[in-house]
Amino acid sequence: MLRIFFYILLFVFLTITTQIGGLVLILALLLSKKIKRSFRFKKTIVFLAIYLFSTFVIVPLIAPIFGREKVRHSSQLYPTTYATVLLNRNYVRPQLNDLLHSASTQLEGQKIELRYLDANFPFIDGFPLLPHISHDDGKKIDISFVYVEPGESVDSRKKKSISGYGVFEGPKAYESDQIEVCKKKGYLQYDYPKYCTFGSINDELEFSNRLNVEMINTILKERSLGKLFIEPHLKNRLQLNNSKVRYHGCQAVRHDDHIHLQL
CB 3.0–4.6 Å: which of 87, 99, 139, 144 could bond 115 by disulfide? Predict the structure, then answer.
């Protein structure tokens, strides 16, 4: 009974985090029984082999049936962390791929690279990409902010946390503090990403007002962009007056560690 309970929990966890992991787990358990030879970590090795083959070969072939494709990487566009790719959280609709590549190409002259975080799973509209509440239709993606080292040196390979989330550019003393407003209203989840950093790193990096304004304004020029979410204090600080720049509401989480784009 304990073993069955463990596999049920594992199935749920893998499905929530990768979408395909639960199904791969079942296949791995069945295939492991077919393999007569006994060796250490047999189930784990079989699972990893099927999972990696599925992630990099099978899933990209099937995803277009559901109207989605992998984010196409380039020298100007790549994931903040490759865990996003390994967990199948890097799928978007073709129109969003085009938007990302158009914006990243325009930013090349500014020496700014687009680094993306969670996008969507490859299959099924409405399937939640937890912990997000809206990344379920291929139309959304999170983008990391631009940080600089002391002296304004830009190194896009560096980030403020291992996950890419959870290290905030919070409001200054003279700026509005929507975070406290939401927490006082009882939305305690509002700043929960601080528990999802998996470790803060590169403390020397500084938020660049100039480069983030350049990046965001370039993205805002894309006609297919529907909305861009950012925390109100950063919207005011960066003087983002475009009507597509919106506030996401207290029911979501704070957006001063990344921006959210959607078609």
Answer: 144
